[in-house]
Amino acid sequence: MGVIIPIGIYAYMAFALQMIATKTHIPNAWLAWIPIANIYLMCKIAGKPGWWTVLALIPLVGIVVLAIVWAGIAKARNKPAWVGVLFVIPVINLIVPGVLAFSD
Predict the structure, then answer these.
(1) Domain limits, the chain
(2) What does the angle CA 81 – CA 59 – CA 65 come to, to the nearest 5 degrees?
């Protein structure tokens, strides 16, 4: 179970990110399945420069950067920015990508 659950969560997050990229007409939506490339894809969806991927990998700075990126992703999906910022809250961060990916 210690391996199956994380793999299931990763697959869900990657699929949701791929759906968001497809709905926002971002090329190379398959990057959602590659570990660091998915952060690059999130930056592109949010309209941020690709070098923000490096910032997202820095401890503590990464939390702020990812909150800004998820707010940008929410705006790209025509949702309020606060929906994306909810991504920093544990457990809620499993719901936010699904809401952004599968809602109209």
Answers:
(1) 4-102
(2) 20
